[in-house]
Amino acid sequence: MLTRLVTRSDAEYLFKWRNDPHTIAMSLNSMAVTWNEHVSWLQHALNDKKKLLILCYLEDADPVGFVRFDVHRRYTEVSINLNPRCRGKGYAKKCLTAALERFKKEFQRSTLIKARIKIENDASKQLFTGAGFRYLTTQDNITFYSLDLTAC
Question: What's the rounded Cα separation, in Å, for the pair 113 and 140?
Fold first, then answer.
């Protein structure tokens, strides 16, 4: 799985993926976004030194997925969204693992990575567990997982 940093030219398909009905159902924010909201968010995120937006892709193919890292003082939160056409093909774990490697290179420091997942999102819980994340707790229908990069 190859990775690169997201650019402004990726806005259209990221917007389509974000507003996919399954993505909306599994997102913590289960509301569709408008084009203007999306473009504004993307521009802000691209300029934010505490965010890392990574696109996963296969050579000579459409992008497979998108991984976002939000760096906080004591931990980094990660989220993933796959191209709807790439779901169920075994790409999620490869994308997440490649993005975690990219994150380690870009930030060059060990950190605690956390994921927040809707309790009913079994696919994501399985993905993060399979990638080495450990279950922490459940609160308000959100499950929390973590991965200590110092142990990797």
Answer: 20
Number of independent structural domains in the chain: 1
Residue pLDDT, tens place only, 67-84: 999 999 889 999 999 999
Q: Is the pLDDT of residue 140 over 80?
A: yes
Query: How do strand 51-57 and strand 112-118 relate by DSSP bridges?
Result: unpaired
Q: Taking the model in full, what pTM does it have?
A: 0.92
Place of tokens 């995120």: 45
Distance (Å, whole) CA 143 – CA 137:
6
Q: Could you tell me the residue range of the domain that residue 144 belongs to?
A: 2-151
What whole-number distance in Å separates Cα of residue 94 and Cα of residue 114? 18
Nearest to 6 by CA among 59, 40, 47, 36: 47
**Residue 100 contacts residue 131 (beta carbons within 8 Å):** yes
75 touches 111 (CB < 8 A):
yes
What CATH number has the domain bearing residue 68? Answer: 3.40.630.30
Sign of CA dihedral 52, 56, 61, 62: negative
Distance (Å, rounded) from C-alpha 127 to C-alpha 124? 5
